[in-house]
Design a protein that fits this description.
Elements lengths: L15 H4 L2 H18 L2 H12 L3 H29 L1 H22 L4 H15 L2 H9 L7 H9 L4 H16 L1 H7 L1 H14 L22 H32 L3 H17 L1 H11 L1 H20 L4 H29 L4 H30 L3 H27 L1 H5 L4
Length: about 400
């Protein structure tokens, strides 16, 4: 096993690949990747489900947003569980629940709008994987490598690419309900690999009274991080869930072509996440986030007025690139400020990200139904990105002279 940085004071700092535990980092990525794949599964299937169940635009938006909201709520619960029993066991429990839920949905069938919402709640346990995979990897790495470690583990959000690429094609061949059962196969394989490779770090904090886990909420910094991630990750997952509906409804693409277009956008945001973490390690998370919020706001405003797929697609890709960098940048900063509470903070910040995603996905559906256009939904979220930029400008000076200076890492 690689020599861990906490095993003795005064040891020379090692390179990234020697600093932590690679099998655990790989396990965290794989677990996160497949969990994310099923978390957004209703998005690529939404056009077909909507046809079968005769859903309105608002119902479609709420359907794809429900797993995001459930994942947001469950991330806090799972974050508490991680700090009490460890991330490895927490991950195994969550994955078993997801596999059992998908298998039951496949056997029984989803025959109503209410049934899709119930399935969305179960899929929320997959979204809660965020509060498991990131602490699992983070606890093995020192402050100067947090951005890269969290970025690589967090790149598991590329699972949304797998859903966008394969779910529409499989649904066309076997029916959308069959896709729910087929998803259990890779989930089970990855669960076995995860149990073999993953190992909890030896420096985990001891269990605390339950009330102590909410102590970070008494600090303003926790709320700032939650707000920033509500924009970056909320934008990413909200778009990942909504783009299949947007491309089929707005431009008349087939479900398979809409899946390919969505995959291109999501791939950009997923691939760039570790780059965002590394960039934040290099220039500081605050600088990286400042650029992210500005670019994201401009791109989302541009998308709102895009007249064709040819203009909308590259603009979405730009937005996803910015949001992906932002996801990595936020989690370069969080462990510097809340290292002892990283489990619960991952849950809290991840919860805020899920709430942001729920808002974006559901608001796009309601905007379409109420106004006949998706434009208001995109413009409001662009405005939220500018609000986040203003907030970051407000706190950055205090951070750099306070806990940022004491952390030893660039912020």
């Amino acid at each position: 096993m690689a020599t861990a940085y906490w095993e003795g004071e005064g040891k020379a700092k090692s390179g990234f690949w020697q600093a932590g535990h690679r099998p655990t980092l790989i396990a965290a990525f794989l677990y996160f990747d497949l969990a994310f794949m099923v978390w957004v599964l209703l998005g690529p299937l939404a056009p077909e489900i909507a046809k079968t169940l005769h859903l309105t635009a608002a119902q479609k938006g709420l359907m794809v947003a429900t797993p995001t909201l459930a994942g947001a709520a469950l991330r806090l619960v799972v974050g508490l569980l991680v700090d009490r029993i460890g991330p490895k066991r927490s991950g195994a429990i969550a994955q078993v629940i997801v596999i059992a839920g998908l298998f039951a949905a496949w056997i029984v069938g989803v025959n109503s709008f209410g049934g899709t919402l119930a399935l969305g709640v179960i899929l929320g346990f997959a979204g809660a994987s965020f509060a498991i995979a990131l602490p699992l990897a983070s606890r093995w790495y020192p402050p100067e490598h947090q951005g890269k470690a969290m970025g690589l583990a967090g790149m598991g959000n590329s699972g949304t690419v797998l859903a966008a690429l394969f779910a529409p094609t499989l649904a066309k061949a076997f029916g959308w309900n069959a896709v729910l059962g087929l998803a259990c196969i890779p989930l089970t394989i990855v669960l076995a690999v995860y149990l073999i490779l993953a190992k909890d770090a030896p420096n985990a904090p001891p269990p605390k009274p339950m009330a102590a886990y909410l102590k970070p909420l008494k600090t303003a910094d926790a709320w700032w991080f939650m707000g920033f991630y509500g924009v970056t990750f909320g934008g990413f997952v909200g778009l990942a869930a909504s783009l299949p509906i947007y491309f089929t409804d707005r431009f008349g693409l087939t479900t398979v072509m809409a899946g390919y277009a969505t995959a291109a956008c999501v791939f950009a945001g997923s691939l760039i996440r570790p780059v965002g973490g590394a960039l934040a390690d290099s220039i500081g998370g605050v600088k990286a986030l400042s650029c992210v919020f500005l670019v994201a706001a401009l791109a989302l405003a541009g998308v709102s007025a895009a007249p064709s797929v040819a203009t909308a697609l590259p603009t979405f890709v730009l937005a996803m690139l910015a949001l992906g960098v932002g996801n990595g940048s936020v989690f370069q900063l969080v462990p510097q400020r809340f290292r002892e509470e990283i489990g619960v903070m991952t849950g809290l910040v991840g919860m805020a990200g899920g709430i942001g995603g729920f808002y974006l996905a559901s608001s796009l559906g309601f905007a379409r139904q109420l106004t006949g256009s998706y434009q208001p939904g995109f413009l409001i979220f662009a405005g939220l990105a500018l609000v986040a930029l203003a907030g970051l400008s407000w706190v950055k000076g205090k951070w750099r002279t306070g806990w940022g200076a004491a952390s030893g890492a660039r912020i």
